[in-house]
């Protein structure tokens, strides 16, 4: 399926690929609704096949959004991925609020809603989604707008954090026990919290992306004589320490004569930053590389450790004397910190890479070590300490989901990113089934037999101790593998840091030069008006 997603997206573009994902989602969930409501009674294997179709629709949408975003924001790919993944992390709690407020106890109707609502939202969003392969003119017009890319990222961050805090408060105060009217108020409040997202496109360059070009229609060229252009170049050279006439790009930033054919304002490399990652590996080349298997194993081990804790949380709380309400609170806490971790490990690695050249793979070592320590802690933690365990583990688990797509795009390239990204996600499926389901289930049953507890329930601190100790041992291995990956990619990120610095200098120079041109332009028009008034 990953190869098919890549092939369609590469040939048809993100919009068609997204539409295919929406069709699969709608068809799959509609068929599940029909089967659940008794319209037809398929055999079990048909239900499984329908579920595969429905869930793969989400994979098409997720892969398309991630692949398009890392291409559109090559120097902010971690931030973009973190935002997208954080919304995935918070979506489960949001859908739970929606179900409790509007559909409970009609689960079948809610199944139909899940099939229709995301498709409607996706259809509305499709016209606004595309890959922009050049630097837009709006990126150089920072003096004309206050809505920079960073500020729009900030709006999305604010929405996710606010939603997360609201969902945590709902869990703490027991929203499932509120009356119907209060649940409706919570639903409306959740919708209101999402409204700031509508402000993101404001003053972002318009619906039609325009390349950063000087065109023959620009009046500035008609008003600036050649000697004035030379004066501006000398001023810029004095400001930035560059030789006059040398902008560090392949084409001149300013044209000496008016009416010439349009030329790029910045060179090709500056228009498509991120070229310090020159390697574009095919899926076969990717799977033949050591870096792929290092990332595969680290991601698979650490995310399966998180799923081990989350999937068995009910039995973990029960075995240590906790209540059902405590379990619900821990699930909500893990989910909110999962979303927070996705935001943090999208933003922090991106900023530190831009400021100091810290490799993104360094933070993979951090989250792997955090997962290892919290797994060892969980082996001996009391029921009161499980809240802190859920806090740290949810944060580290979310961090993996932000780091993996960004690392895959940087280490293996963007040309085959969709396929390589989907192949890496298989690590979670394999690890979760092996560790969180088979191993944890087997060891739990062994503890039940050893204790002789009734009702197939294990009570005691040691019910999951061996499971968590094995997970901690695997975590030590993943931390070692992440450290090896850090060592192998340090040169790659050093080159990327140099490219980021050079690109930001060129962008600043182009923006300042644009401002000087506008100043001369305004001065020329003022002089013409003064002469006309004298006449």
From TrEMBL:
Domain Nodulin-like per the UniProt entry, residue ranges: 14-198
UniProt topology in membrane: Multi-pass membrane protein
Membrane-spanning ranges: 12-32, 44-61, 82-102, 108-132, 153-175, 181-200, 292-310, 330-349, 361-380, 386-409, 421-444, 464-487
GO cellular component: membrane
UniProt KW keywords: Membrane, Transmembrane, Transmembrane helix
Domain NFD4 C-terminal: 289-493
Top-level taxonomic group: Eukaryota
InterPro entries: MFS_trans_sf (IPR036259), NFD4_C (IPR056555), Nodulin-like (IPR010658)
Cellular compartment(s): Membrane
Listed name of the protein: Nodulin-like domain-containing protein
């Amino acid at each position: 399926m990953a190869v098919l997603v890549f092939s369609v997206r590469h040939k048809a573009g993100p919009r068609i690929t997204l539409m295919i994902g929406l069709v699969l989602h709608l068809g799959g969930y509609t068929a599940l609704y029909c089967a659940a409501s008794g319209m037809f009674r398929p055999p079990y294997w048909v239900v499984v096949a329908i579920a595969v179709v429905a869930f793969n629709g989400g994979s098409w949408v997720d892969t398309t959004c991630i692949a398009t975003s890392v291409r559109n924001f090559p120097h902010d790919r971690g931030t973009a991925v973190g935002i997208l993944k954080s919304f995935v992390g918070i979506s489960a709690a949001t859908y739970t609020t929606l179900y409790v407020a509007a559909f409970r106890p009609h689960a079948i109707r809610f199944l139909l809603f899940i099939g229709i609502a995301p498709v409607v939202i996706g259809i509305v969003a499709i016209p606004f989604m595309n890959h922009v392969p050049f630097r837009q003119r709006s990126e150089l017009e920072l003096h004309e707008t206050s809505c920079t890319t960073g500020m729009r990222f900030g709006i999305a961050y604010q929405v996710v954090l606010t939603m997360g805090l609201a969902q945590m408060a709902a869990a703490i105060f027991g929203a499932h026990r509120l009356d119907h009217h209060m649940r409706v108020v919570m639903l409306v409040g959740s919708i209101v919290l999402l409204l700031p997202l509508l402000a993101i496109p404001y003053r972002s360059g318009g619906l039609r992306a325009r390349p950063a070009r000087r065109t023959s229609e620009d009046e500035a060229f008609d008003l600036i004589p050649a000697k004035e252009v030379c004066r501006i170049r000398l001023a810029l050279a004095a400001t930035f320490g560059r030789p006059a006439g040398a902008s560090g790009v392949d084409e001149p930033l300013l044209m000496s004569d008016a009416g010439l054919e349009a030329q790029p304002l910045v060179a090709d490399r500056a228009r498509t930053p991120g070229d310090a990652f020159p390697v574009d590996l095919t899926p076969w080349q990717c799977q033949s590389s050591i870096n792929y298997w290092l990332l595969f194993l680290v991601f698979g081990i650490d995310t399966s450790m998180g799923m081990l804790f989350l999937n068995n949380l009910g039995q973990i709380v029960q075995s240590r004397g906790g209540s059902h309400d405590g379990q619900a609170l821990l699930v909500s806490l893990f989910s909110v910190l999962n979303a927070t971790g996705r935001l943090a490990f999208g933003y922090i690695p991106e900023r530190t890479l831009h400021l100091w050249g810290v490799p993104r793979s360094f933070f993979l070592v951090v989250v792997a070590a955090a997962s290892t320590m919290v797994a060892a802690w969980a082996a001996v933690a009391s029921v009161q300490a499980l809240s802190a365990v859920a806090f740290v583990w949810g944060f580290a688990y979310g961090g993996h989901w932000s780091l993996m797509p960004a690392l895959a795009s940087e280490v293996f390239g963007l040309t085959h990113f969709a396929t390589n990204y989907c192949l890496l996600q298989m690590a979670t499926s394999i690890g979760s089934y092996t560790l969180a389901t088979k191993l944890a289930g087997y060891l739990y049953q062994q503890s039940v037999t050893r204790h002789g507890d009734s009702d197939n329930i294990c009570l005691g601190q040691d019910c999951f101790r061996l499971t968590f100790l094995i997970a901690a041992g695997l975590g030590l291995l993943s931390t070692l593998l992440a450290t090896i990956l850090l060592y192998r990619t340090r040169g790659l990120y050093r080159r990327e840091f140099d490219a980021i610095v050079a690109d930001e200098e060129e962008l600043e120079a182009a923006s300042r030069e644009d401002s000087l041109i506008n100043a001369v332009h305004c001065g020329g028009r003022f002089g013409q008006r003064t002469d006309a008034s004298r006449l």
